[in-house]
């Protein structure tokens, strides 16, 4: 890819939004992130029915499309797990895991104009993902995380640095990432940080997002994707 990959990847986690962490529904939170300058957002709801996932995803896609103006595009909206829902909801892409449809199967559904991202947890999976048409590779969990019910083993920054050498695709670090850990994670080779809890649980999520983006500007904003 010959562009600067968005350095912050906001994960709109439905379970976190429904807890005392943040009393806000998905669309207003997504709009808050977009207003803060976040250019890449994913909706994750592991408990939703297909219809529920579609309804919310369609609403989010429409809400974020309003941020397009002039030559600037609206933030790219990604649906987790379901390429069919991403296509029908008018999303900008889909993110698949190791137990979902494969990258090329998802690509066959969403087409070439939408992004397909893939989660990886080992160096072997990173190398395999690099041989696919995936638009980016997510790697983690970098740190311990409580966001997922059954998280994969923590990989750490050292393995993240190795993963950086195994793919020329944009590399997204995910899992337990906080603002305090952002700089070292960028330095280890991440082009982007996927963040859920540290944004949703913040007293001021908008200010937190801006702080992440400011750290990215200091760390990797001018770095070409794929350069370690």
What does this structure look like?
- The chain is an alpha/beta fold.
- It is 39% helix and 17% strand.
- The protein has 10 helices and 8 strands.
- It has helices at residues 14-17, 26-35, 50-65, 83-89, 103-110, 123-130, 156-164, 179-187, 197-200, 205-219; strands spanning 8-13, 40-44, 76-80, 93-96, 115-120, 136-139, 171-174, 192-195.
- Strands 1-2-3-4-5-6-7-8 form an 8-stranded parallel beta barrel, surrounded by 8 helices.
- Strand 5 (115-120), helix 6 and strand 6 (136-139) form a beta-alpha-beta unit.
- Helix 4 packs parallel to helix 5.
What is the molecular shape?
globular
Q: Strands of the biggest beta sheet: in what spatial order?
A: 1-2-3-4-5-6-7-8
Rg result: 16 Å
Which class do the helix and strand fractions yield? Answer: alpha/beta
String of helices and strands: EHHEHEHEHEHEHEHEHH
Helix percentage: 25-40%
The mean pLDDT is 92
Number of helices: 10
Sheet-strand content, in percent, reads 15-25%
Q: Whole-Å distance between the termini?
A: 15 Å
The low-confidence parts are: 222-226
Major β-sheet annotation:
8 strands, parallel, barrel
Number of strands: 8
